[in-house]
Amino acid sequence: MPNTNNQIQDLLNEFKAINEKARNYLSEVDKKIAQLDMKYAQSLVRYDINILKAAKSILLAKKK
Q1: 32/36 Cα distance (integer angstroms)
Q2: CA dist., res. 32 & res. 25, Å (int)
Q3: How far apart are CA 3 and CA 23, in angstroms?
Q4: What does the pLDDT look like over 1-31, one tens digit per residue?
């Protein structure tokens, strides 16, 4: 019986190790996704700022 218990414990330990690796991997993936989301949001804001600057230039040119 101890052999079976040891095998079960070994399998459980292996499962825990794999689970921890998967958790770490997903954590890294989440960080990368968040970085990409931030870069995308920043590019949208820059685009919006450029549109507003262009609109301001057009309005100022029409005013003159």
Answers
A1: 6
A2: 11
A3: 30
A4: 558 888 999 999 999 999 999 999 999 999 9
Share of the chain above pLDDT 90, in %: 84
Res 2: pLDDT: 58
Mean pLDDT of the region 24-43:
96
Structure tokens at 48: 């919006």
For the chain, the maximum distance between any two Cα atoms, rounded to a whole number of angstroms, is 94
C-alpha atoms less than 13 angstroms from C-alpha of 29 in its C-beta half-sphere:
6
> Mind giving me the DSSP string for the chain?
-HHHHHHHHHHHHHHHHHHHHHHHHHHHHHHHHHHHHHHHHHHHHHHHHHHHHHHHHHHHHHH-
Q: For the chain, give the number of residues.
A: 64
